[in-house]
Amino acid sequence: MRSSADVYKKVAERCSSYDKKTKKDAMTNVAGDSKSCLNCRHFAEDEHCRLDLYDPIAKNIGC
Questions:
Q1: I want to staple 19 with a disulfide (CB 3.0 to 4.6 A). Which of 39, 41, 43, 48 is the partner?
Q2: Distance (Å, rounded) from C-alpha 38 to C-alpha 8?
Q3: What is the average pLDDT across 37-58?
Q4: Per-residue exposure over 8-25, b if at least 16 CB sit within 10 Å of its own CB, e if not
Q5: Beta carbons within 10 angstroms of residue 40's beta carbon
């Protein structure tokens, strides 16, 4: 994991494109039911945002 679970949660809460994975999309239930990059459909398995939104949001919130 590149960032902490807390940072992934903070970024997802501020992301306008967050799209929670459905049960059929999810490989594992890593982040539980809370909003997190880890359970967003746009977050790749190699831990990057396919929409390139993670870095600008993380920078904006000081992470």
A1: 41
A2: 7
A3: 95
A4: bbbbbeebeebeebeeee
A5: 25
Band of the pLDDT at 3, cuts 50, 70, 90? confident
- The answer to whether 48 touches 5, Cβ cutoff 8 Å, is no
What pLDDT score was predicted for residue 24?
A: 65
pTM of the model: 0.79
Q: Is the Cβ–Cβ distance between 23 and 41 less than 8 Å?
A: no
Domain residue extents for the chain: 5-60
